[in-house]
Specification:
With 424 residues, the chain is α/β, with parallel strands linked by helices. The chain is 31% helix and 21% strand. It folds into 3 domains: 104 residues, Rossmann fold (3-Layer(aba) Sandwich); 226 residues, tm_1862 like domain (pyruvate-formate lyase- activating enzyme, Alpha-Beta Horseshoe), CATH 3.80.30.20; 67 residues, Nucleic acid-binding proteins (OB fold (Dihydrolipoamide Acetyltransferase, E2P)). The structure holds iron/sulfur cluster. The site of iron/sulfur cluster (SF4) has 10 residues, from helix 5.
Length: 424
């Protein structure tokens, strides 16, 4: 969307590394190396385009504005809330000039106002990302996001529906709802469940997927709607972070392992075909052998189809940065490896459980080695011979095996069970 806004201002987009008059860096503050990465990108660009105007935006522009001001070559710093307005702060392409020092815009406060996002963020993908929410009030002790993205706020209902209709009209088959803490969606009394009902009613919206959602923000009504819906994907990504209650408490997470178990149990009772993913963090301060063993045991026991494993790194300004008992880096690396291996075996087992089933698959653009890939509603990644299906189509596929970490199958003209029919 930022690229579209720049094009409207008369700019032409080129790939990173090509000669340019303008470098826009969209930074992240989640990684430890934000400042280093930024310095590297600026240096590299100014080497081949010494006249290039450098604008920096995103989360690190919000949390690390002071550090960024000392990076040579930066001309403009725009805090993350006003990222989409960045083109308004730039002169027309012919008037771009390097500045003696960076201008700082909106790097301090983020207000709580509900928001709209003008325009539609088209992409080359067959799935459209529909942002519904931003910011977070949960204050997990390891997380910088509440500082970088500010307090919780929701996109107005009308604006979400307007963009969803645009996506449907442009042929996108799947809407992926995104935000920092989407379960906290709330606009003039409308909750996430209300929003989902409105989205379901849009003609042309075929599939709706909820991206990562905090476990404590999943009400029974959401699970029931998901189970009954012909459009909502049977898929949940519920960040667990740790399988140890002591660590969860120190992380300031709002649940214990038992509550998480119960939520998973409820979800699978309603949707036995659910695809369940999670995030796990290793090396949080105080994570001893016993706490890590609890995480491994919980991760192995619960019916996850995959997990994303994150290594803890101390982020200045967070509560956890002041905690004692930091875990040595080699131990963190080893724990990360252990969980990544476990995740691979869980994915394999999940895919194996799909063999013999016929499932609708949304196929993506592009093919590799004669295969086209796509995803089922429960997020099984499926490969088929590329010449048997076209990109953007939702086609029923009988899963016959596993190949290179993907489920493999044959497209069929099968009659699917009623619950799958409208996904076609
Ligand atoms: S809920 Fe997520 S975004 Fe919010 S503070 Fe916790 S980890 Fe960060």
């Amino acid at each position: 969307m930022l690229g579209d806004n720049l094009k409207r201002q008369g700019y032409r987009l080129v790939a990173f590394g090509e000669e340019t008059d303008l470098l826009v860096l969209n930074t992240c503050s989640v990684t430890e190396n934000a400042e280093k990465d930024c310095r590297y990108a600026v240096r590299k660009t100014l080497r081949h385009s010494p006249h290039a105007f450098v604008a920096v935006t995103g989360c690190y522009a919000q949390t690390g504005a002071a550090q960024l001001q000392s990076v040579p070559g930066i001309d403009l710093i725009v805090g993350t809330q006003f990222k989409m307005n960045l083109p308004d702060y730039l002169p027309p392409p012919s008037k771009l000039r390097k500045q003696p020092e960076p201008e700082l815009r909106h790097s301090r406060t983020i207000d709580r106002e509900d928001f709209i996002l003008p325009g539609t963020a088209y992409s080359d993908s067959t799935r459209a990302l529909l942002k519904i929410q931003d910011g977070c009030d949960f204050m997990c002790s390891f997380c910088l996001i509440p500082f970088a993205r500010g307090r919780e706020r929701s996109r107005t209902l009308d604006d979400v529906l307007r963009e969803a209709r645009d996506f449907a009209a442009h042929g996108y088959r799947e809407l992926v709802l995104t935000g920092v803490n989407i379960g906290q969606y709330s606009y003039k009394g409308a909750s996430l469940v209300d929003l989902l009902r409105e989205l379901e009613a849009i003609t042309g919206v075929t599939r709706i997927r909820i991206s990562s959602i905090e476990p404590t923000t999943v009400p029974p009504a959401l699970l029931e709607l998901m189970a009954a819906s012909t459009k909502l994907c049977h898929y949940l990504h519920l960040p667990l972070q740790s399988g140890d209650d002591g660590i969860l408490q120190a992380m300031n997470r709002r649940y214990g392992v038992r509550e998480y178990d119960k939520l998973v149990e409820r979800a699978f009772a309603l949707m036995p075909d659910l695809g369940l993913g999670t995030d796990l963090m290793v090396g949080f301060p105080g994570e001893d052998e016993c706490a890590f063993a609890n995480t491994v045991q919980t991760a192995a026991r619960l019916p996850f189809s995959y997990f994303h494993v994150f290594s803890y790194s101390s982020r200045p300004g967070t509560a956890a940065a002041r905690f004692a008992n930091q875990v040595p880096i080699p131990v963190i690396r080893q724990r990360s490896k252990t969980l990544a291996e476990l995740s691979r075996s869980k994915t394999l087992a999940f895919y194996q459980s799909q063999i013999g089933h016929t499932l609708p698959v949304l196929f993506e653009q592009g093919e590799r080695n004669g295969f086209r890939t796509g995803t089922t509603a429960n997020f099984t990644r499926v490969a088929v011979a590329a010449d048997t299906v076209s990109a953007g189509a939702i086609h029923p596929v009988t899963i016959t095996g596993i190949m290179d970490g993907l489920a493999y199958g044959h497209p069929v003209a099968a009659v699917l069970p009623p619950s799958h029919r409208t996904l076609l």
